[in-house]
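Just curious. Protein, please.
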Amino acid sequence: MKINTLIIDDSPSWREILTRLVKMNPLLNLIAVCESVLEAYTHIANDSIQLIICDIEMTPISGLEFIKNLNNPPLVIFVTAHQSYALDCYEVSPLDFLVKPIEPPRFFKSIEKARQRLTEAPEAIEPYFYIWENKAYVQIHYKDVLYIKAEGNFVQIVTPEQVFMPAGTITKLEEKLKPDIFLRVHRSFLVHRNAIAKVGRNEVVLRAGQEIPIGDQYRNKINQKQIEAYAVLRG
């Protein structure tokens, strides 16, 4: 399997470095190397791009804005000299976030993650889970959940349409849920990754407008989870 890859970076020296790294990896098929996102649009429209390796600070359109504006974007690895962009990138769920200078082993680890993501069987993850509520099993789709909150001996599962209140603890429920879908941000809260609009220092803001507090003991873990699963800060 070859992964069709597009490089976008406005620095000539970094285009050369990234090209060399891509050509060193037999998993990658380099489709094009672009100096701006405007140039990249043609390849996105006409080529079967599976992976974009993209700088962030570019003009007139940043790499982050470019990815935000794509419908069904391919996998994205952001590369930048500025580690501070990691939280900004979170909302587009990149595969990885690499801080320049990039060591080849770290880059190749990102490519292995891309291979695993692209070869995952779609049916491997069921799109729903069950809870026991009001003397019956209730099916809840993962995509419908905004967040989960501990409420004494019960757990609130909040969706846009209704709130479920099964008995139990949030820790026990977390153990039965599929990994990498929910993020533990507080001893009393789990949030669905795709529901997140912004991550601040003290709160997570959801796309629906809710603000969920971040517990002190989870702050560093949130950054680490971003690194390993979606947006990915490894420093």
Summary: DSSP finds seven helices and 15 strands in the chain.
